Structure prediction request, 329 residues.
Amino acid sequence: MHILNFNRAAFDPKAGLKYMLGVAIVIAASLVIEFPWFACGVSALLIWLTNVPGPRSARLKGMATYIVIGALLVGLGFVLAGTFWPWVISMLVAAFIGTYAMIEGPRGFQVGWCLICWFYCLPLLDIGSIPWDILNAHLLGSIVMFAIIALLSAKEDATEELAPPAEKPGVPFVASYATTVALVMAIGTALGGWWLKSDPTLILQASLMILMPSVLGTWVVAVDRIIGLILGILAGAVLGQFFGFGTAVEIIVWLVASFGLVSTMNVNASLAVFWFVLPFSAAWGILESEAFHELGNERIVAEVIGVVLAGIAVSMRARLARMFVKPAQ
Prediction:
């Protein structure tokens, strides 16, 4: 793996367009019903990411799992709202269980990863004040996107159902990796709660997005992610300053970023992070210069801390593995 290595063959504008149209339908429905459109959009994105290539029945089952468990996590998030140590411990447990789902193969890993993301987003969605609105938003965003994906995949070749199942990792590997992710997420949650003013999830976001079993892979994605983050903050600032940021502009930027994110997510991590950060930093761009700099600087520092935390964790895991695992004779 190399820094800023762009896999141009992985650019998928067709997938980006499908997702953007799906998000447009979700947001339009949320505005008509008066559900929080942002929460609808987050859940729609996460259920789209669970759609790992494979047999259609397995894909739909994975997405249905996300919908049901995601709804249960809304209830848990409401109970934990406003707490500190209970939330840190819950994040530790949720991250372990979500990562351990990789025992079921790539699909299990992706569904578990998306559920971890949904859980840590709940405080940002004001779960303590509007739990029913967030639950309804989750169900609307995920079910509408589920239906869209189901319709788009209805004409797939039935022989795809006969494809061999993906290879599943062993228990020792999964347990050690899940423990690493859980500890990093718990530490990131605690550090964010103690220190960050704008968004307490920034450190754990950065860590979760780059953590890989491979030490080299983690550090390469980390550098790419920081580059994309800085570019996204700068581009968002320009958008916010020149165009303002009312609801209409916010939705347009969200849709454009949705297309960019899905179509380039497998091209390079810096591009995916750029599109992910853009809608948030554009909202900051309308702030006074001092407030914008404070938010931007906090995000960059939190990103670096999350990256270093993840890098140290995977490096220590690799070192421990070399110490305790005997090489094959």
Observations:
- The mean pLDDT is 87.
- Residues 76 and 135 are 11 Å apart (CA to CA).
- The chain has twelve helices and no strands.
